[in-house]
Amino acid sequence: MHRKWMRDFRLYMAVGGMPQAIEAYLAGKNFTEIDKIKRGIIGLYEDDFKKIDPSGRISALYHSIPAQLSKNGKRYIPSQATGKRKSTRDEEMLYNLIDSKTVLISYNTTDPRISLALTKSPESYKLYAADTGLFITLMFMDRPDAVNDIYTKLLSDKLPANLGYLYENAAAQMIAAAGHELYYHTWDKKGSTHYYEIDFLISCGTKVKAVEVKSSGMGKHESLKKFSKKYSKVLDCAILLSSKDRKSEDGIEFLPVYMLDFMVR
């Protein structure tokens, strides 16, 4: 049952929720044809972006989402997308992009003990695509002739293990669809240039749920352990999402990613 549900979930990630893509899948179209439809939708988005900003920078911000998530950085950096130095227009373009409903924004909250909203950092945020199917098309925008092979590997769980950000984007979509704002949290490791990070924090009354996302195996989860200890008074539960089946260990709930929806309603 778990294997079937994971395959169904990966199928949803591949097709996404856009009506035209779903109709094509139900009509028996192959993934090359479905991907062409999704590329067409992205093309329509780009046309709308250029009406707001003819320079193409808003479109560049949108296309840069998978690349920036893949770097596992602390935040989204507009200049990496546009190739321009930071300007006073960056914030305006960002909010135009958010208003388009094509992206989701997650803010870095600096102190989960107080309030996620009150301690969010406006300068430190991540962007996700609002539709997981379009996110996958954006990931492989430069490989239109290889899409059938890519989708086949996705459905059989044979994509490279470093594509955890694909599942992370799907998790962001699920949390937002449940009516929650998106927040994450980072803090420095003592005596190191590295840092700890919790992918998502979800308000739960006076407490928070801490969520970390992995692509395949359960792997290391040092950040969840450290967060559980540091913020034990405000922690409702610690959740690690992956493609593996459910278990509980060391105070952490290990859940298959499709079960996130039950944890955020």
Structural description of this entry:
There is one protein chain. This protein has 265 residues and is an alpha/beta fold. It has one domain. 45% of the residues lie in helices and 21% in strands. The protein has 12 helices and 9 strands. It has helices at residues 2-15, 19-26, 31-52, 57-63, 65-70, 78-82, 89-99, 132-139, 147-155, 164-177, 222-230, 260-264; strands at 103-109, 120-129, 182-188, 195-198, 200-204, 207-213, 235-242, 247-249, 252-256. The strands form 2 sheets. A 5-stranded mixed sheet has the order 5-6-7-9-8. Strand 3 and strand 4 (195-198) form a beta hairpin. Helix 4 crosses helix 7 (89-99).
Note the main attributes of this structure:
single chain, 265 residues, alpha/beta, 4-stranded mixed beta sheet, 21% strand
List the helices and strands and how they pair.
Layout: H1 2-15, H2 19-26, H3 31-52, H4 57-63, H5 65-70, H6 78-82, H7 89-99, E1 103-109, E2 120-129, H8 132-139, H9 147-155, H10 164-177, E3 182-188, E4 195-198, E5 200-204, E6 207-213, H11 222-230, E7 235-242, E8 247-249, E9 252-256, H12 260-264
Parallel strand pairs: 1-3, 6-7, 7-9
Antiparallel strand pairs: 1-2, 3-4, 5-6, 8-9
Helix pairs in contact: 1-8, 2-3, 3-8, 4-7
